[in-house]
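Wed. Picked up where I left off yesterday with Threonine synthase. The coffee machine is broken again, so keeping this brief.
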Amino acid sequence: MRYVSTRGQAPVLDFEQAMLSGLARDGGLYLPETVPAISGLDEMDGLPYAEVAYRVIRPFTGDSFTEDELRGAIDRAYGRIEHAAKAPLRQLAPGHHLLELFHGPTLAFKDFAMQLIAQLFEIALKRSGQRITIVGATSGDTGSAAIEAFKGIDNVDVFIMFPHGRVSEVQRRQMTTPDASNVHALAVTGHFDDCQARLKDLFNDHQFRDQVGLAGVNSINWARVVAQIVYYFTAAASLGMRPTDFTVPTGNFGDIFAGSIARAMGAPIRRLIVATNQNDILHRALTTGEYRIGEVAPSISPSMDIQVSSNFERALYWAYGGDAAAIAQLMDEMKTGGFTISQGALQALREQYVSGRVSEEETIQMIRTIRAETGEVLCPHSAVGAAVARQHIQPGVPMVTLATAHPAKFPDAVEKAVGLRPPLPPHMADLFDLPERVSRVENDVDALKSLILERRTN
Ligand SMILES: Cc1ncc(COP(=O)(O)O)c(C=O)c1O
Ligand SMILES: N[C@@H](CCOP(=O)(O)O)C(=O)O
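Structure written out below (tokens, as returned):
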């Protein structure tokens, strides 16, 4: 399997190289040249999650890992997810199901990919003896998942930038309390898009990139997306492999893009519905064809407070029929505020994705409604998903809403909605007692470079 950049000017790589590279050297994102079809769909129901993961992921990894290495990595990764089913499906109402993706160690869907790629990185780095510096940008969940997965791993330093004052207290403490010396939490002045832009600046400085062995674990990294494909198959299998709609709370577009790969591989996915909060640039872009960056408005679903949605570039690449020059041009225009999607590409995108947005009040109302109807307490991101899903449910077609985080990560929003603060699970019971370790950094690439050079242990 070969991987090409969305901007067409970077070397073609194999899976391991693409995983260790993160962002392509031309600033683009890696994608497989072709999407493999999967067989044996009818046998998937009842298989352990790890077995489905192996069958789905294997075609993407090519010769990069042996069968034993990949199976071992999958078993260790998903051994850390508490629930027996790993990603259980719970019925909310007739025809509406919740795919619970928050049973991992940091209580968000990010654990599914991050736990696995940490295992794969470790195998690859042990083999090569290479040392790397991971830098990540987070609106709260990617950072905590990355720190949990990579803390203490030899040959790896992890620097995570989060927007100062714009993540929940639980999310912040998940990033600032681990005491592993290879982990560095950085509170950046600005919002998530600033953190992600500085991350790309670091990757695009090739001298710095090579000096520190820069690697990325955001969903710009293709390996992240691959791991997120699996649960579309397990959910569809639980529903008897009938044509099914999926609604996905969306920010950086990685999770829903994984859904489109699942569909291209053969999963019976009918509609993929992009659910946004008030930061609704993706909904506006799909509705009007204009991708115009506005101000980020802080919301009660802060992990989705994103305007520059990195994986949308992958969706655009497909929609433009693999025209890398056109994508490079659009990404240039993005730097000055946005771009217009061509009519042909817009039509192609609309064949892939439907969209909806909900307000803050509607999100709160949805947490209340679902609690009253089912007893389940949703996190605000999952509530955005459930509210948009309800706008799109059609008779006779099962709807699956991805529940992307545990409500205990966002106690203030949940309390506002239903007057209770969901307790943290036992393994996090001491989170508020531990000392925090965090560095304040300006939104400035040179300040970041100096800090990384000074702190890295490699
Ligand atoms: C809890 C939660 N839900 C939804 C999302 C959106 O996912 P994506 O960025 O893959 O679109 C995020 C952030 O990525 C998140 O942390
Ligand atoms: N919501 C995310 C933003 C980064 O997403 P990623 O999937 O590209 O890593 C977060 O929690 O950090």
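Quick read: Residues 110-128 form the longest helix (19 residues).
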